Amino acid sequence: MDRRLTHRPHGHILTNIGCWSHDAQWIVYDTRSDAAGSRFDGTTIERVHVASGTVEVLYRSQPGAHCGVATCCPVTDRVVFILGPEPATDDWPYAANHRRGVIVRPGSHEVVALDAMCYAQPFVPGALRGGSHVHSFDARGQCVAFTYEDHVLAAHEAEAPPGEEGVLCERNQRSVGISTPLHSVTVHAAHQRNHSGSHFSALLTRTCDRPRPASDDITRAVEDAWIGHSGYRLATADTWQPALAFLGEVTNLRGQPIMEVFVVDVPSDLTIASDDGPLQGTASQRPRPPRGAHQRRLTHTEFARFPGVCAPRHWPRSSPDGSLIFFLMRDDTGLAQIHCIAPTGGTQSQVTSVPGGVTSAFSVSANGRWLAHTAEGCVCATEIATGRTLRLTEPRPAPLAPRPEACVFAPNGTQIAYVRPVLVEGVLWNQVCIVETDLDT
Fold first, then answer.
1. pLDDT per residue as tens digits for the range 164-218
2. Cα separation of 226 and 178, whole Å?
3. CA-CA distance, 10 to 15, in Å (whole number)?
């Protein structure tokens, strides 16, 4: 049986990973009304104590501003989340390229800007010029990965004459980057929305405006995830390579976009520019990845019966030892199932064979043995080695079934957190729930 932790008449949304505190005592969530909707309307970041049900407000946004998508540091009491413009205005509304990452410590109610933002020239190495999103700490609690969109290029596109988008400058395309505590980044005041940040940030992925069909060129990089606790083990040496897995949009032979799984290596020094342009970008070019940010395609599904990585929206996940990357792809009957592949490439394998298919994002247990996900209105756990799936909750029909955004193992593996709609004061509200597991975690 599951246990409901929140009981108030407003929305509660979990992030796809990192919703548990490092000691598994608290679950962090935001108060957006509906993560699937188009409104980013949450006003608080909160946490609920698993044992007592006590709720604490970690941060309350200023009037007219919003916050959400909170994730915990795996080693200390810190929470990173998206903060929209404070305040949002008609000429600077909330948008994918108008948001930033901030960090709060429970009890402080004060945030520290994670990523510096510099929206006007001269652009500054280590600062972004747009909006970051879905922040996640690495296993050491040091670096933070994120997705990104560029305000400078988006503004050029908006001002371009009809039919001339991208002629004068590169396109704004979603990318993946990281922020590292190398040093803080100070930004000048040439733009009223500029601000300094505690971390040095850089984009890691390379996108292009005109992808070649059947190539590894991508137009978008999304849904990133850290690989392993220390990265993956190089095939030719007894060393470990820090890296991120992500989904990249490629173009098949028919000119159609499909999503595939990619890996990008994280260089040891993010401050060294590559030969193809400056880290901070230019007025007409995207910020460029640092030297050593090698990007590789892992999956080649274009000839499968159902090509491409599929819905529901999910983020690739890695085994703790970095030896496998898991993702969703349709089987030959058209159902979404979890598959896996090594970060060094090779043959992919199907892990789940769930009737009705997997219906949510998923997570991996700390010992690397189990996957937590939803299927057929239930919270489930699938044993990776055997593909055996266990139902952990009773099935619930839509619209009362568990939400698809998150199904997250606690750090100790004994509980799974998720959200399901519950009738509160005559209205369905998303509420945080957990289910105890008796798995050999």
1. 444 578 999 999 999 999 999 999 999 999 999 999 999 999 999 999 999 999 9
2. 10
3. 17
d(CA 226, CA 218): 20
Contacts (Cβ under 8 Å, ≥6 apart) of 385: 369
> What's the one-letter identity of residue 228?
G
Q: Count of residues for the chain?
A: 441
Tens-digit pLDDT profile for residues 370-396:
999 999 999 999 999 999 999 999 999
DSSP helix/strand/coil, 315: coil
Angle at 176 between CA 248 and CA 236, to 5 degrees: 75
User: What residue type is 405 in one-letter code?
Assistant: E
Q: Is 155 helix (H, G, I), strand (E, B) or coil?
A: helix
SS3 of 173, please? coil
Per the DSSP assignment, residues forming a β-bridge with 262 are: 246, 297
- Which parts of 271-391 are beta strand (E)? 295-297, 317-318, 325-330, 336-341, 349-350, 363-364, 370-375, 378-383, 389-391
Q: How many CB atoms lie within 10 A of CB 189?
A: 9
- Reference 197, options 213, 211, 180, 220; nearest CA is 180
Phi/psi at 152 (5° precision): -60, -50
pTM of the model: 0.96
CA distance 273 to 289: 7
